[in-house]
Write a structure and sequence with these properties.
The chain is of the alpha+beta class. Helices cover 37% and strands 32% of the residues. It is globular.
Length: 177
């Protein structure tokens, strides 16, 4: 088995484990829905708050994929934890030290493809793939799962699950001037 195949297998296993655990956390299969099912949200029994939170998250992802900044949704006092990593205690700190090491090494927009989206109350869980081209011309791919707690349409708390090996490979391979 090659390294690439073992990394894909590991990523698939980790993603499946996270998704399975999140399905248990969400309560029932009915509590989870793919983004394209959001049109029926009012009929599904979701509260107005859940619908607003889901809509705010979907707008943030759309903004990112159009070349904008997904992080506009973050509150200035957000607490962002990279699970098995570090916790940042403000938007400015996270952008400078958590996000920049990845984003500064990309030549193209990080396209975020949502695979699953769950919501309950003020919590929205997004499992997605991130794909871009690094400034050295090599493709960057990562699988993410973000657990966001929103307040007033802004993310106040985030737990981010991602493949830190893919991040380390990008950071080690692409030097910044």
């Amino acid at each position: 088995m090659t390294n690439g195949m073992s990394q894909r297998s590991r990523r698939t296993f980790v993603t499946a484990g996270i998704a399975g655990g999140l399905m248990m956390v969400s309560g029932t299969a009915g509590a989870s829905a793919a983004p394209h099912e959001d049109a029926g949200a009012a009929r599904s029994g979701r509260s107005a708050r859940e619908r607003r939170n889901r809509a705010a998250v979907l707008r943030a992802f759309e903004r990112q994929n159009a070349g904008g900044d997904i992080y506009e949704i973050l509150h200035d006092d957000v607490k962002w934890t990279i699970v098995n990593g570090r916790t940042y205690t403000s938007k400015a700190e996270f952008l400078a030290q958590g996000s920049a090491p990845i984003m500064d090494r990309l030549a193209s927009t990080l396209v975020m493809t949502i695979h699953d989206l769950w919501s309950e109350g003020d919590t929205v869980i997004i499992r997605f793939a991130g794909d871009a081209t690094a400034i050295d011309g090599v493709e960057y791919h990562n699988e993410y799962c973000w657990v966001w707690r929103l307040q007033g349409g802004r993310v106040m708390r985030s737990h981010a699950y991602l493949d830190m090996i893919a991040v380390r490979e990008l950071v080690d391979r692409v030097e910044l001037d």
